[in-house]
Target: Lactate dehydrogenase-like 2-hydroxyacid dehydrogenase
Amino acid sequence: MSLRSRASRPRLLVTRRLPAAVEDHFRARYDVELNPADTPLDAAALRAAMTRFDAICPTITDRFDAAVLDAPGATVTILANYGAGFEHIDLDAAKRAGIAVTNTPDVLTEATADLAILLMLMATRRAGEGERELRAGRWTGWRPTHMIGQGVAGKTLGLVGFGRIARATAERARAGFGMRIAYFSRREAEDAGDAVFYPTLKALAREADILSLHVPGGAETRHMIDAPLLAALKPGAVIVNTARGSAIDEAALAAALASGHVAAAGLDVFEREPAVHPALLACDNAVLLPHLGSATIEARTAMGMRAAANLEAWFAGRDLPDRVA
Model:
């Protein structure tokens, strides 16, 4: 594929509002169209954009399926995705269209691991439930049996997946609370330290006091936390998900929360974002956050600069640092 060689700067569309430092960086280097209103672009707008720009910096809210990517007369040569996940982009269609796709790995590990610990503590200590009671004016004062939760010190944290974010979460849980670490992944890690490997997810579920998900999206992980798996958990176990909403059968989780078999859940991601399963909304013992995993100024700026590095490499004719297609 030949890159644009015209004298003017490449035309770039940024589909959502980004941190100011990132937008300033793009303004200095591209003929850029930003989205100050931060309104989502529909399929028609994305399809039209394919013929107006040389590059697009999309996010997980933008669906680039074959119908968008195959737009006649398309001029876009690269999608520099703002985010580590890229399930919203049809990679096969991108390859057919000769469009490169990159992502922004590695820069959100610390922020997401912090949030996993936050959700674990909020869920076990009933913090979300307690704040809702207080704000609603229902709190009648301290009493010995009010809002009793459970501690995490010395408990077993079961990690589903053992990548960078899972390891960072384990580090915090071990150092901060003396938790025992167990994990399930496709293969046993050689550098797992004292973390115990379980060859099946069900075996891990039987041992974990808190089960924390750290897996990619896709058919392989869809609804891996289903009714049978939830039944295998210890009574009173807690579920945390900062990975992909599709990994959990939300109706099954809501039923397990309602029955009390699962004591609590802390969820930052949902299968049909921004929609949340109504049964989950009805569960007082569910902590529900609006996808805040990477939402620190440090992480979100670093994500933008990582996308920028991919764009700059592309238009300079260099190898892409983070190519996924």
User: Anything to note?
Assistant: The domain at 109-288 is CATH 3.40.50.720 (Rossmann fold). Confidence is low (pLDDT under 50) at residues 1-6. The two ends are 14 Å apart (CA to CA).
